Prior knowledge:
- With 489 residues, this protein is α+β, with helices and mostly antiparallel strands.
- It has twelve helices and 22 strands.
- The strands form seven sheets. The chain has a six-stranded antiparallel sheet with strand order 1-11-6-7-10-9.
- Helix 1 (2-54) runs antiparallel to helix 2 and helix 2 crosses helix 5.
Amino acid sequence: MKRLFLVALWVWASTMVYAQTDEFRKSYDEFRQQAKTEYENFRQQANKEYAEWMRLAWEWHKKIEPMSRPKDDMLPPVIYDDGKRKDEPQPLPHDDVVPVPVPEPQPKPIAPIREENEGDYRMGTFTFFGTEGSVRLPKDFSFKMKGKDEDVFASAWEELSTDRYDNLIRDCLVLRMEHQLCDWAYLMMLGAMSEAVCGKGSNEARMLQGYVLCQSGYKIRFGVTKGNDLRLLFKSEHRIFDLVGYDLKDGLYYLTESVSDDGLYICDVSYPEERPLSLWIMQEQRFAEKESTERVLTSKNGNVSVKSQVNENLLQFYDTYPTSMVGEDIVSRWAMYANTPLSENVKARIYPQLKSTLKQTKNTEEAANWLLNWVQTAFVYEYDDKVWGHDRAFFAEETLYYPYCDCEDRSILFSRLVRDLLGLDVILVFYPGHLATAVCFNDSVNGDYIQLNGRRFTVCDPTYIGAPIGATMPNMDNKTAKVILLNIS
């Protein structure tokens, strides 16, 4: 009898638990549906108000001339004279340290973009940097603006704000995720998509690109030329060189394409939770592979020889990348390049070769010396002005591809190799007219060094030809040197 009582008690308790669980699940589902509805209503209201402002809030803004790319008097490479090496390591004073902030996650929509009925859509295809993309468009897609005034632009925004275009936004965000696109690559991709479905250089393409960017969480504004042609502006976390800017209520905005007018009529209206575009490239950009011609890079002493190929589609993207700076310090621009990872295909191609070669060395110091000598002697030095007509820093892949490079390109490549292959922290060291690196070795290493937060970073100069680690190029003014922090531990 006691056993039957306990079984009955257990059945009753279980029933109560399940009943409470069902009630909790029902309450949670109701809450989730309510929250979802509130999110959607919030976004709908935000778009409605934005369209209303587009009918009213256009004001003339004079353009700000582009900030010219910095031009340093770059010093030529120097051949190392072993007879002049100092026996005692020299601590190098430095003027200041340029910190590099940790990038924030990418912007996101103010509300989840809901999946709509698949059957009411057709596919729009496009190509960006040699890579195929596709998005769902309304089955009867025919986005046309009949006119070039405020009412037309506002009505276009209202049309795009219907749920018929939600799948388009979702597909763009999925492409951003699948291809690991940084913000700049996403901006470029949306431009390619919009022109493919709306027509190259059309007001409709600019409106669609701006709308999807806005709904993806980015700060955008629209401007109108004196001829009533629409233009798209974006806000950047970083000060960009060589792009026309407009000083609006919350800072500087840049044009995605140039105009001849001395200003624009701009609708300077914000959208909830919008965020500026970032120029950090924290992940490999996954574009379709188009292999370059194989290049053999061999150090003069013959210790290191590498067969290299890179993705020409990635190089095409890098060719669009604007020079910028982090914060207000102009030398911080090199951190943008040095912190960008090598693509997995390039690492899979050249790192096994380098690792096999470095196994022949006795220790980490010798391995670093071999890498340093390879970067010093396997590449041909030339000034940017002569090759490009202006200063241009290279991402690591670009140095592996182009026939010429200078001190900044070599330092960026060397810093990447040492971090990836030897697992050592690296900083950049800028002297007026010259960029070098310094490496934090785990063991005691002889040579000139920089003391930083209790750690010793030994100078390694990829442009001091034949110089071992620890040797500072002659005539460097250490009192004016700047340390540029990279993503070090």
